[in-house]
Design a protein that fits this description.
elongated; seven-stranded mixed sheet
C-alpha cells in the first residue's frame, strides 16, 4: 500500500516535464517562425505594407497650326481659361458631389442653353439620391435587396424617385448638378474640362485661390481652334470634336490603340481629319504614385509634351479670297441677269492648281439658298456633274491612240440619225469638214460621234442615216479606260478624307449612249477630277496627284515663327498616259485654237498676253424633285491652262443648272477673271521682290 503511494508521487513530475517540453517545443517553433517573418521575409512583407501603384496619365496638348503657302496662319489655337477636374483613384459619387458643391461657389453654370437645359431627368435623380440616400435605400424591400445586384438596386431606386421630388430644385442646386455632370465624365487620373467657355478672369482667380479645398480641381489654360480668315475654305480645313464628343465612336478602337483618351478632341472632317496623326502632337505624360487606397503621394513628368506639327498648305489665301470673290460675284450676276431662267442655278465651282506639281492654289465653291450666299468649297470634291464638251480632248486622244482615227483625219460635221433614236448633231446646224484639232476648236459633236461609233465597231462613213449601228459593248470599258488615265471616273488621290468618283452610267448595248459619253453628256465628274484631267494634258500626259499639303513643320519654340521643315510634299506622278506624245501635242494645239483663233468657242475671252488655252463646255441637264422633272437646264463648264508653252496654272470651272440658251456665260466670266487675278498678283509680287532687291 505504501509503495503504491510512493510510485504515484514519482510519476506526477514526469508528466509535468513532458507538458513543459511540449510547450517549449511550441514556443521554439513560434520563435523560429517569427524569425523567418522578420529576418528572412521581413523586407518583402514591409514592401507589401508600403506598396504603391504607379499610373501614367497622358495630358492633351494643343494641335498644330495650319498656314497658307505664304506662311499666313489659317488655323490657330486661341487660348482659353479652363477649369479641369482630375479624380483620384477610387473617387466615389459622394466625393464628386462634395467637390461640385464647393466649386459652385466660385464658377457659374447658369447658361441655360449650354448647361441647365441639357440636364437630364437621371442627372437630377442621381443628385436627389445622394442628398436623400437613407430615405431612398429604404424604398427597396428585403427581398429586392437579396435578389438584385448593386446596379439593379441602384436603377430600381432611381426609378422610384418621383418627378415631384426632382421638380423643385433651386437655380443654385441645378448649377451644382450641372457641375457634377461634368465631374462624372472624368476618368481616374485623367483631366476632364469642367468649363472652358466664357470662364471669367474672376472665376479663374477664385478657383486658383481655393484649390486646397477643391481636390482634383485645377485652374489652367485650354484652347479652341481660331480662324483668322473666317469661313474661307473652312469646309476643306474641317472641324474637330468637342471634349464632350471625344473620339469618334465608329473609330474607337483605332484611337484607343494609339494612345488617345475617350474625351480627346480629334479631327472629324477635312484636313483636320486627314492629317490627324500630324496635328495631334505628343501628349505630356505624368506618372502618379498612389497608395493602395488611391491616395496620390507623388507625381513625375516622364514625357514632356509638345503641340502638334504645323501644316503649310499650297493654298495662297490672298489668291483664294480673290477667287472666292470672283466666283460669288459671277454667281450673283448670272442670277440677277436672268432671275427666271437661272432660278435653278445654285452653285458655281472652281479649282485652280499647278499642273506640273499638283499643288492646289485655290479651291472655291459658292452656293446660294435664295439670296443667301455661302462658301461650299467641299462641293468641288463631293458633287459630280455632266461636264459637256470639255472632255472632248480625252475623246480625241482615245480615238487617236486606239487607232480608230488618224492624226488630221477629217469628218463632215453633218447630223447623224440612228434608227430609233433622235438625230444627233453639233451646236451649230453645220460646222463643215473638220479635222481633230478644228473639231476641238469648233467643238464638233459629230466628230466625237464618229470616234464613238468606230470604237464600237461601226466604221461606215458617212453613216447612212436611218440605219441601225453596229455596236460592241466592250467599247464602253475601252473608252472609259482612256478617260481614267486622265483622272476622269477615278479618284484623284487628293489628300482629303473623301472624294466622289462621279456617276458611271449603264453600259447598255446602245451606240447612241456612247456617243453621248464622248461629248460629256453621260458620266459625271467632280470639278477636282476635271482640274486633274486638264492638268494632265497641260503636263504632256503626266497625271499628278492634286494636294493641299506643301510642307510639315516642327512646332516652333517661340510660337511666332515657323519651325524647321519636318517633311516636304513632293510631286507625285500617278501615271503617264499611255499615248504617243504627238497625239497629246495635237490636242494641246486644238485647245490653243479654242482660245486663240477666230472661230474658237472661247475666242474673244482669252487672247491676252498670258497665252491661255483650254476647252469650253455645255451639257444638257435636268432638275428633278420627288422623282418629277421640273426643268431642263444646262451645265456651263470650262477647263484651261496658261501659259501654253510652260503651264503654271490650270483650272476647271462648272456652273450646273443654268437656264437653257442663257446669254450670260458665267463659265467664261469666272475663267477670265481668275486668269487676270493670278497674273496680276504674280506681276505685283514680282515687282515687290525687285524693289526689295534694289
Amino acid at each position: 500500500m505504501g509503495n503504491k503511494k510512493k510510485k504515484k508521487k514519482t510519476q506526477l513530475p514526469f508528466r509535468i516535464n513532458i507538458l513543459f517540453f511540449v510547450v517549449f517545443l511550441m514556443f521554439t517553433v513560434l520563435i523560429l517562425q517569427l524569425g523567418v517573418v522578420q529576418i528572412l521575409n521581413g523586407e518583402a512583407f514591409q514592401e507589401e505594407i508600403d506598396r504603391t501603384v504607379k499610373d501614367t496619365t497622358k495630358i492633351p496638348v494643343p494641335r498644330g497650326k495650319i498656314y497658307d503657302s505664304n506662311h499666313n496662319v489659317i488655323v490657330d489655337n486661341k487660348p482659353l481659361y479652363s477649369i479641369t477636374y482630375t479624380p483620384a483613384k477610387g473617387t466615389q459619387a459622394e466625393d464628386r458631389l462634395e467637390v461640385a458643391e464647393k466649386l459652385s461657389k466660385y464658377i457659374s453654370m447658369d447658361d441655360e442653353k449650354k448647361y441647365l437645359d441639357k440636364l437630364t431627368e437621371r442627372n437630377k435623380k442621381e443628385y436627389w439620391y445622394l442628398k436623400n440616400k437613407e430615405e431612398a435605400d429604404n424604398r427597396l424591400s428585403e427581398k429586392e435587396v437579396a435578389d438584385l445586384d448593386n446596379a439593379e438596386q441602384y436603377n430600381t431606386i432611381l426609378d422610384r424617385i418621383t418627378k415631384d421630388e426632382i421638380s423643385g430644385f433651386s437655380k443654385q442646386e441645378l448649377e451644382v448638378i450641372a457641375i457634377k455632370k461634368e465631374l462624372d465624365k472624368a476618368y481616374s487620373l485623367t483631366p476632364q474640362i469642367v468649363k472652358n467657355d466664357d470662364v471669367t478672369a474672376e472665376e479663374y482667380a477664385k478657383v486658383s485661390e481655393h484649390l486646397d479645398v477643391l481636390p482634383g480641381v485645377n485652374a489652367t489654360t485650354d484652347w479652341n481652334r481660331d480662324y483668322p480668315f473666317g469661313e474661307t475654305i473652312n469646309s476643306l480645313l474641317g472641324t474637330i470634336t468637342t471634349q464632350e464628343q471625344g473620339i469618334l465612336a465608329e473609330k474607337e478602337q483605332y484611337y484607343l490603340t494609339r494612345g488617345y483618351s475617350r474625351n480627346d478632341r480629334v479631327g472629324k472632317s477635312g484636313l483636320e481629319e486627314y492629317y490627324e496623326d500630324v496635328l495631334r502632337g505628343t501628349k505630356e505624360q505624368i506618372q502618379y504614385t498612389t497608395t493602395k487606397s488611391g491616395e496620390v503621394v507623388g507625381t513625375e513628368t516622364v514625357v514632356e509634351g509638345s503641340r502638334g506639327k504645323d501644316l503649310v498648305l499650297s493654298i495662297d489665301m490672298e489668291f483664294q479670297e480673290e477667287v472666292d470673290k470672283i466666283v460669288r460675284e459671277e454667281l450673283k450676276a448670272a442670277v440677277q441677269s436672268h432671275p427666271y431662267d437661272n432660278k435653278y442655278l445654285k452653285d458655281a465651282l472652281a479649282v485652280v492648281m499647278n499642273p506640273q506639281t499638283g499643288e492646289l492654289l485655290a479651291v472655291s465653291g459658292q452656293t446660294r439658298d435664295g439670296n443667301e450666299y455661302s462658301n461650299a468649297a467641299y462641293k468641288t470634291l463631293y458633287d459630280a456633274h455632266r461636264p459637256g464638251s470639255i472632255v472632248k480632248g480625252a475623246t480625241v486622244l482615245a480615238g487617236l491612240e486606239s487607232g480608230v482615227i488618224s492624226p488630221g483625219q477629217r469628218f463632215n460635221d453633218s447630223p447623224i440619225k440612228i434608227s430609233g433614236t433622235p438625230k444627233k448633231g453639233s451646236h451649230s446646224n453645220y460646222i463643215g469638214v473638220v479635222d481633230d484639232q478644228d473639231a476641238l476648236k469648233r467643238s464638233s459633236n459629230v466628230y466625237m460621234f464618229y470616234i464613238a461609233l468606230k470604237m464600237g465597231g461601226e466604221n461606215r462613213y458617212p453613216f447612212p442615216n436611218g440605219s441601225k449601228a453596229s455596236f460592241n459593248t466592250e467599247a464602253w470599258q475601252k473608252m472609259r479606260n482612256y478617260f481614267q488615265q486622265f483622272g476622269l471616273g477615278v479618284k484623284t488621290g487628293i489628300d482629303f478624307p473623301y472624294e466622289s468618283v462621279g456617276f458611271e452610267g449603264d453600259s447598255m448595248n446602245r451606240a447612241g449612249l456612247l456617243m453621248d459619253f464622248a461629248i460629256g453628256q453621260y458620266d459625271t465628274y467632280t470639278t477636282m477630277q476635271l482640274a486633274q484631267y486638264v492638268s494632265t494634258i497641260a503636263n504632256d500626259g503626266y497625271r499628278v496627284r492634286p494636294h493641299f499639303l506643301k510642307e510639315i513643320r516642327e512646332p516652333s519654340k517661340s510660337g511666332k515663327d515657323l519651325g524647321s521643315i519636318y517633311r516636304s510634299e513632293n510631286t507625285d506622278i500617278l501615271n503617264r498616259v499611255q499615248m504617243d506624245q504627238s497625239y497629246i501635242d495635237r490636242v494641246q494645239e486644238g485647245f490653243r485654237r479654242v482660245f486663240q483663233e477666230p472661230g474658237g468657242t472661247g475666242y474673244g475671252y482669252y487672247h491676252k498676253d498670258y497665252n491661255a488655252v483650254g476647252k469650253t463646255g455645255t451639257a444638257q441637264n435636268e432638275v428633278y424633285k420627288d422623282g418629277k422633272k421640273l426643268a431642263e437646264t444646262e451645265n456651263l463648264s470650262l477647263v484651261g491652262y496658261a501659259p501654253y508653252d510652260e503651264p503654271e496654272i490650270a483650272f476647271a470651272i462648272i456652273a450646273p443648272d443654268t437656264g437653257k440658251g442663257n446669254s450670260y456665260k458665267i463659265n467664261h466670266m469666272i475663267g477670265t477673271r481668275i486668269l487676270d487675278a493670278y497674273f496680276d498678283l504674280k506681276e505685283e509680287r514680282d515687282k515687290e521682290k525687285n524693289e526689295e532687291k534694289e
